[in-house]
Design brief:
Blueprint (H helix, E strand, L loop, with lengths): L1 E2 L1 H12 L18 E7 L20 H9 L1 E7 L4 H10 L10 E4 L2 E3 L9 H6 L3 E8 L13 E6 L15 E4 L4 E3 L4 H15 L7 E6 L57 H28 L6 E7 L18 H4 L1 E6 L8 E3 L3 E2 H12 L13 H5 L4 E2 L3 E5 L6 H8 L14 E6 L2 E6 L7 E4 L17 H17 L16
Length: 504
């Protein structure tokens, strides 16, 4: 089944009437407007969650796995390519090229005009929801309290310089828009405690609530909680990706030999296993947090009427394509976990293989709440997939990373052929489309080859089919389709893209 806009409207109509399609789950059903708990972690790869096939065999996340057992796990979710744009898209429902007024003043400092760039929690408030935000903020000193949030405890990363790196300890937060004060303790655990307190306080609330729980973990420096310091001490050595050092002959020139890793005396990546293990140790406190908030929902009798969404702002690579970062258009870098749990709507333990992104989640939240968006959003509604995961969406999945630039400035930079405006270190901006089993990538740089991957045959994206004459027709087809699909998503920038280098 291919899910169309007509199908979406039908589902939304049922939701507005409080009629939830039954998935066979007994003695549990959502009614009216459900509560929505949106858990948003930082730099967490899907490979760090043990219910994903790509996870390391020794890594364990039992509570996140249990959440997946109660709902649906998406195998390919692209929420964003780095922290700030991902959050801007999540709150606006727009891809980065269309997010107006956000400006990076001096990273990580940023600003935006709330009169021109509205965030959707304000719409939820107008439609009967109480809204709350706990955790990481990354969009300037205006944290939206009283406009977007009824309750907020926010770490505004760019607010003061010393707060920018305080991901785990020494964190300063603003409660309900007030002055910055010490959060105290290990931040992941403290955000969990605040979320549990919020959930318990809403036990007798007459209004539905929306909580955006934004953990700062597992962003670098990947500091584990004290109780997890010795975890995985007996685990086997982490397998090193085959292309950590290159060469990568079919990649674009600036990526052929790129690596973030130094070789030790044996020619192996220095400190690799320790770094990977440290990252996974920090994941464990996030898993603990999921377990605690689920228990709070159960104990307060709210679990049966709460939708839980678990994802991250993007993934993170550990050696794949030579990287130790997000930003790049490959699954290893940006694929995040995504789990939906909704009693009575989603059949427990289901898996969906359709590629989705962050703005899709935003559109779906509107459907779950029975609310029409107040502005054009770029996301596809996932309601049909939540009910029947074997279905297909009409439109392909689009993703874009324009690094530091947003909105009109994307077009301005392209018109001026100022491709370095999009440059971060040795990486350039790009656009990406997933259409069925194929991934198409185009870089914002002169004389650079495109990329095309068969994600079924080559999930690690090692063989760029764009240089294979056999796939020339498919490459042209997807190039044209990507341009048109982005144009349909307010992407005027496509008229000013640099011409791709013709593959040999």
């Amino acid at each position: 089944m291919v899910y169309s806009k007509r199908h979406t409207l039908l589902v939304m109509g049922l939701l507005c009437l409080g009629v939830w399609p039954c998935s066979g789950q007994e003695n549990a059903s959502l009614s009216g407007k459900p509560n929505i708990l949106y858990i948003f972690t930082d730099d967490q790869s899907h490979r760090s969650v043990s219910c994903y096939e790509e996870a390391r065999p020794w890594a364990k996340t039992p509570h996140i796995d249990k959440l997946a057992d109660t709902g649906m796990r998406f195998t390919h979710c692209y929420t964003g390519a780095w922290c700030q744009p991902s959050r801007a898209s999540a709150l606006s429902g727009l891809l980065q090229h269309a997010v107006k007024t956000v400006k990076i003043t001096k990273y990580p400092m940023a600003s935006y005009d709330p009169e021109q760039l509205c965030f959707f929690p304000s719409v939820l408030r107008k439609n009967g929801y109480e809204t709350a935000c706990i955790g990481k903020w990354h969009l300037g000193e205006d944290v939206g309290h009283g406009r977007d949030w009824d309750y907020s405890v926010i770490w505004d990363r760019g607010g003061v310089r010393r707060n920018a790196g305080a991901y785990y300890d020494g964190t300063l937060v603003r409660t309900n828009g007030g002055d910055r004060e010490p959060l105290g303790g290990y931040s992941t655990d403290r955000y969990t405690e605040l979320a549990v307190d919020y959930i318990k306080a809403k036990k007798s609330s007459e209004k539905p609530w929306y909580l955006w729980l934004c953990y700062g973990g597992v962003h670098g420096p990947y500091t584990p909680a004290e109780r997890h310091q010795n975890s995985y001490s007996d685990a086997p050595a982490s397998r090193v990706p085959v292309d950590i050092f290159g060469p990568r002959p079919t990649k674009p020139e600036h990526l052929k030999n790129m690596t973030r890793w130094k070789k030790d005396g044996k020619g192996e990546p220095k400190g690799y296993d320790a770094a990977v293990k440290k990252y996974h140790k920090a994941v464990k406190s996030l898993d603990d947090g999921v377990g605690a908030v689920m228990q709070a929902l159960k104990d307060s009798g709210q679990l049966k009427n709460t939708v839980i969404i678990f994802t991250s702002d993007q993934g993170f690579a550990w050696g794949q394509h030579g990287s130790q970062e997000k930003w790049m258009p490959y699954d290893a870098n940006i694929c995040a976990p995504l789990i939906f749990s909704a009693p009575g709507l989603i059949k427990p333990g289901t898996v969906c293989k359709e590629a989705v992104n962050g703005v899709d989640i935003t559109s779906t939240i509107h459907s779950l709440a029975g609310i029409d968006p107040e502005w054009k959003m770029h996301g596809r509604d996932l309601m049909g997939l939540l009910i029947k995961p074997e279905g297909k969406l009409e439109e392909p999945m689009l993703m874009i990373n324009t690094i530091y630039e947003y909105g009109d400035r994307v077009v301005e930079a392209l018109k001026a052929k100022n491709y370095d405006a999009f440059k971060r270190r040795d990486l350039y901006a790009w656009m990406m489309m997933r259409d069925g089993k194929y991934k198409y990538i185009r870089h914002f740089k002169d004389d650079v080859i495109e990329e095309l991957y068969d994600m079924e045959k080559d999930p690690d994206e090692l063989d760029n089919l764009a240089v294979n004459a056999k796939y020339h027709k498919k490459l042209i087809e997807l190039r044209i389709k990507a341009v048109e699909e982005f144009r349909n998503k307010d992407g005027d920038f496509v008229d000013h893209l640099p011409e791709p280098k013709q593959a040999p």
